[in-house]
Amino acid sequence: MQAISNALHGQESENFQEAIRVLDIILRQHAAKQGCLLVRQSYFHNDPKNFADVGGGVLGCRDVSTTMIITPGPVVDFLIANQNVRDPFSLDWAKAKRTLKNLRIKTSPSNQEFKITGLSEFPCKEQMFKLKVKGGVDDATEEVTVYDYFVNHRNIQLRYSADLPCINVGKPKRPTFFPLEALSTLQRASLVEKSRQKPQERMRGLTDVDYGCSAEEF
């Protein structure tokens, strides 16, 4: 505790680095509870005035630093905006695969979070997987399509996913597929880029923020 007290007063001690790490954890935990977006060592307020649409389904978020985040919403809307096309059937899926790689999404209606690992080889109406048979003997399974499973087993209506690739959130040997319509992007950073603010602007940004939730690189 003495090392933490010394650090708060700008005084170095034997355990200075450990004290700094403890303070960093406390600040990050508090910032997260306040709804801030944490990107490496920077915190960004979830305040509309800090966001600017930079196109391609991406928002610029600026406090004292600047970061690029994915616009929250349906994955299909993000892809359409990102590629500037009219509808999902006009998407370049080779490009989409690169764009979606490692993007974090949530499923509907369960709201579970996953990280995208790739796309299915076949469209949803053809992509098969093994489904455990209810009441079956031991590990009995049957093969069903992703489309059939979501429509007939989960009672989720799919308007256009049948002819589009599925999103894979599983591992290479154990893929887990979801139709495009069942997924939404989360507000996650896609690219960290320092802003080119002048010193006066950076100081103004620091004095305007709520320090209960803000810190640039600690």
From TrEMBL:
Stretches of the chain forming a coiled coil according to its record: none
Location of the PAZ domain: 74-187
Similarity field: Belongs to the argonaute family. Ago subfamily.
GO MF terms, alphabetically ordered: RNA binding
One GO process term, biological-process aspect: defense response to virus
Stored InterPro entries: PAZ_dom, PAZ_dom_sf
GO cellular component terms, semicolon-separated: ribonucleoprotein complex
Name of the protein in question: PAZ domain-containing protein
Keywords in alphabetical order: Repressor, Ribonucleoprotein, RNA-binding, RNA-mediated gene silencing, Translation regulation
Keyword Ribosomal protein: no
